[in-house]
Amino acid sequence: MIRLLFALTCLAATPLWANPFSGVFGTDDPPEETCALNPMTQTLSPDHNRISFHWDTPVESYTGAMITDFGGTITAMDAQSLTFLRDNETRLDPQGALILWTMHLLPGGSYCYTSTGWPEEGCGPPYLRCSSDPPIS
Fold first, then answer.
1. Cβ atoms of 100 and 83 closer than 8 Å
2. Element housing 3 (H / E)
3. pLDDT at 31
4. Closest to 25 in 3D by CA, of 124, 89, 112
5. In what order do the strands lie in the sheet with 128-129?
6. How many Å apart are CA 115 and CA 62, to the nearest integer?
7. Other beta carbons within 10 Å of 36
8. Which range (11-15, 30-34, 42-46, 102-106) has the least confidence?
């Protein structure tokens, strides 16, 4: 019984940075989305089926619209990556399926994106953790 209580206490005390896909992130590309100017807050739903993104200041979406929020349905996740289908996605990959986005963890708790709609040329610009939380090893 004491072990169970200890385990539950440890789980309840797990900091946000323990989940590498949740937190506050910024990028230098585009420059208006840096940690200093307009960081992005990412949040996973408790059941890890959804991911949401939020900026305090609007950013330009792929449609050209200015947005502060969007979300997606998580289709796969492991210790090193998270793949999601963006809500209201309309873009198609070369096979005609809706494109998926994958976040790949990088050293130090940052990540980069790939997309099924991109050529196989590697990740986009990195998103760096903005807070002073310890990095994920």
1. yes
2. helix 2-12
3. 84
4. 112
5. 111-115, 101-105, 81-86, 66-77, 50-60, 40-44, 23-26, 128-129
6. 13
7. 7
8. 11-15
